[in-house]
Amino acid sequence: MDIQIQWFPGHMAKAKRQVQDALKLVDVAFELLDARIPVSSSNPMIDQILGQKPRVIILNKSDLADPSITKQWQRALDRPYIKAIAVDTIKGEGLKEVPRVASMLVAEQMAKLAAKGRRPRAIRCMVLGIPNVGKSTFINRLVGRKATKTGDTPGVTKGQQWIRTQGSLELLDTPGILWPKFEDPEVGYKLAVTGAIKEQVFDIYEVSLKLLQWLAEYNPEKLKERYRMNELNPEATKLLWDIGVKRGLLVSGGLVDESKVAQLILKEFREGLLGRYTLDLPPM
Ligand code: GDP
Fold first, then answer.
1. CA of 132 to the centre of ligand 1 (A)
2. E strands present in the chain
3. Annotated binding residue at 68?
């Protein structure tokens, strides 16, 4: 599948440098991943960028992912310095865990500082992730109404500020934006179906055909129920056509408006109306 490349080597180097600079100021990184595609929504250089920095992996949009696979992912991602939590930022589910897990990850480090006679201070954090993974929504949610800017801090890029969050963390108000592994066509497909990349840069019809084919194999009953069909045509192009007829998405002459149907399928998939799915599976 063809995806227009919006990140150039220069952009990537700059983004990496910005993130690395900001990381020097923080105790904990919040790496946002899409719970439906924890591999495809990750950055290919993230381990190199973060090293052993304490990291909370936020499996976001978990309302749209298969809950049992999300649990498997949490276990698979667990390391001494990494903990993964499932979050639904829209409903606010799982967010209370964020400050708790962050504190746990830096407890030892903070105790060492205290032993040296340093005064206790808030845990400093930053949010990282690819475009559309939910960074802004997450920051707004975590900050909530009690947001207070903590004033300019030396070392922070101009225009960036620390904000105090509900669980008494200090968060950089600007997230670090990372690039996905867009050169892999399978990754491109998953980013497209989940809405991580703009519709102008991929073939909506091709993507929705591939999705339809997969759904028809993986969970035919759900498709039948949603589109009120007794049987599913085994050919994806015909199945898409049938859905168009069912939904009355026609152009003059009684032909199906295939691009409208393709858009409908993608929209309903992304809203979770076709079920909750995880497209990247954890290693066994
Ligand atoms: P950013 O580009 O990473 O800052 O992403 P945004 O915060 O702008 O979010 C991208 C889209 O994802 C928006 O339409 C959000 O409403 C949606 N979104 C964010 N978090 C969640 C979530 O937990 N569940 C669902 N279903 N949608 C979410």
1. 6
2. 28-34, 55-60, 82-86, 123-129, 148-149, 162-164, 169-172, 176-177
3. no
Number of C-alpha atoms within 13 angstroms, CB side, residue 184? Answer: 13
- pLDDT, one tens digit per residue, over 77-126 is 999 999 999 999 999 999 999 999 999 999 999 999 999 999 888 999 99
CA of 61 to the centre of ligand 1 (A): 7
146 has a pLDDT exceeding 70:
no
DSSP code for 143: H
What's the domain range around 218?
A: 203-270
Q: What total of structural domains would you count in the chain? A: 2
What's the number of CA atoms in the CB half-sphere (13 Å) around residue 267? 6
Q: How far apart are CA 84 and CA 71, in angstroms?
A: 9
Alpha-carbon separation of residue 178 from 47, 93, 95, 215 (angstroms): 12, 24, 22, 30
Q: Are 106 and 214 contained in the same domain?
A: no
Nearest protein Cα to ligand 1, atom 12: 134
CATH number at residue 71: 3.40.50.300
